[in-house]
Structure formats: structure tokens, C-alpha cells
Design brief:
The structure is a single chain. By secondary structure, this protein is α/β, with parallel strands linked by helices. The protein has three domains: 7-79 and 116-194, 3-Layer(aba) Sandwich (Rossmann fold), CATH 3.40.50; 84-111, no CATH class; 200-300. The protein is built from 17 helices and nine strands. The strands form three sheets. A five-stranded parallel sheet has the order 2-5-8-1-9. It has a two-stranded antiparallel ribbon with strand order 3-4. A two-stranded antiparallel sheet has the order 6-7. The radius of gyration is 26 Å and the shape is elongated.
Length: 320
Amino acid sequence: MPPTATIDTLTDALQAAGYFADRRLATAAFLALKLQRPLLLEGEPGVGKTELAKSLAQVLGRELIRLQCYDGLEQREALYEWNYAAQLLHLRAAEGSAPSEEIEREVYQPRYLIRRPLLQALQAPPPGAVLLIDEVDRADEPFEAFLLEYLGEYQVSIPELGTVRAAATPVTILTSNRTRELNDAVKRRCLYHWLDYPERERELAIVRARVPEAPQALADQVAAFVHKLRSAHASLFQRAPGIAESVEWARALVALDTLALDPEVVQGTAGVLFKQREDVAALTTELITEVLAAEEGREQAPTPMSRRFCSLSRLRERAG
């Protein structure tokens, strides 16, 4: 059965590639593939938006083409530009040997075209490519308007060549950290999914898959500690650690031959979890001790079944 046959098979295929998608995210990705619509992923940095595109490319056996957006990104850097040096050489070589109109037509041939990510994705041979338009919120509004033709019709217009349509429909993933609101016209052309931080069990599965050399107890502590920082102490930090930071932290702890977390090792590696000076300073010894103690208490707390067993034991003791 192909990996895109059902939501469950896609979920399993992504998991085999090391990406643990929950049901809602897997449904959004499945519909984007079936409906051949771009998928816009918004969420905090480090929650796995970019990794989904990478994993989909691996699962589908397609080339991953990445367009990294930034302030001031121009159309020629995203779509195409002409090889002016080669065109000039051709003009000089052909000068006087043909009419000027014919020479001008010759220099605007595909062989003089430098293809950028959007054009590469449109011209990728079957089965097509996965195009990642990463951090689209960093680009400006005119660039968003430029994207509309591609997002709505999988085609672009090149004045000298005409309209270029997709040879095979690209799987298109847009990501945004929501540093600014995107234009409604962009959103209407995409399916939408807000990607949140994972629950503790899913993050533990990710850490274990990405850092298999980490001891089970340490991986569990890492997932629990980061989850506690996000859920109970998020207001203390400018930005809570993402999944990427959890994985990198686990790798760092393994490199230090750490078997269990303690305040000293947590403070010593705080720069892996946080990238702001204020956030590192907010991770005090007192806070670390509190989080570790809370987690230890949770592990030692009796389960409903064990409480029931203890109650029965006490009743038997009293009866005896």
C-alpha cells in the first residue's frame, strides 16, 4: 500500500522517516497531497514545520527544493534570472551575422535562463518536487503578491518566454513563525494548520528516534523537563524551547556522558535550550530544582491502581 493511501499509512510512513505527526497534522498533510493544494504551517520556531517538508520529500521519494525567505527577497532570486554574461557573449559573437531582431530572440532562450527554486519546482520531472517556502512571513507583501499565481495555478509568467506550467504538480509547504500577519489572498490559496508544541509522550518519541544513543531514563527526563518549562513556566521566558532544542539538548547531554539531570548540568547546558541571554538567566538553580523535584514527585506518586491496592491492604490489616 502506498504511503499516501490513507491518513494512517502517511502517519506510519512519516514516523518511519523519524517524524511523529499527530492526527490533525497528518490529516492536513494528507489533504494537501490529495487535493494538490499548498499547505501553510504556522507555529512557534522549532515545532517541526520545516522538518515536515523534509520528511515528506523522503517519504514520497521526491527532490526537496527550498526557498528561504528573508526581508528584501526579490522575484529574480525566487523564480529566475537571465545569464547576462552568456547573453552578452552571444550578442558579440553574432554581431553582424544576422538581423538584430533574430539575435535578440536567440538570447532569450531557455539555455540562458538561471532557474531559481520556484521555476525548478515547476520544471521538475515526474513525480515532481517538494517545494519548501520557508519563513514566508520574513518576506515583504509585494513578494506575497508575486506568489499568488504559483500558489493558485502552479504556474508563473516569464515575459520573454510566456507562461510556464508545472510538469508535475509540486507538493508545496509554506512555513511562517507569524512575525507578521500574512495576506488573506495567500491564505485562501492554501490549506492551513497551526503546529503547536507536542505533548510529552510524542516529544519523548521524537527524542528517542533522533537520539537513539540517549539512555531511556535520560530521554524521559529531557522530554519531561522541557514540557514542564513550556506548560508551567512559559511566562518566564521570551521563547520556550522547541522540539529542535530538545533534540539538540539530548545530544549535548549524551556527549557529556550524562546519565541523569541535575541543576549543575542543566545550567551548564542552558545555552543549548535557550538562545536569549535573558532566558538563560531566567533558568535559575531554584527553578531547575523545582522542576526536577516536581517531575520526581510525579513519577513517585501512586497510580489509581496502586492506591486501590494499598487501600485493600490496609483493610485486610485492620480485619486481621
